[in-house]
Amino acid sequence: KMKPKKKTRKKRGHRQEVTRLMINSINLNGAVLASAESAEAATAAE
Predict the structure, then answer these.
(1) Is residue 29 over pLDDT 80?
(2) Are 9 and 2 in contact (CB under 8 A)?
(3) What is the predicted pLDDT for the residue at 18?
């Protein structure tokens, strides 16, 4: 059942499981564009 103008629904019944993906690195033609280690270092520096 949906409430009008609220965009909310009751969370009952069938809800499909969601798969989580972890990206370790991004490569283009053999060159590493980004990796998990560099992303962690960038967030730690801020």
Answers:
(1) yes
(2) yes
(3) 83
The alpha carbon dihedral of 6, 12, 16, 18 has a sign of positive
Distance between CA atoms of 40 and 46, rounded to whole angstroms?
10
Pairwise pLDDT comparison (24 vs 10), residue with the higher score: 24
d(CA 27, CA 23): 11
Cα→Cα distances 38→20, 21, 23, 24, 43, Å: 21, 18, 12, 10, 9
Average confidence (pLDDT) over 3-29: 78
Tokens in use for 24? 């370790």
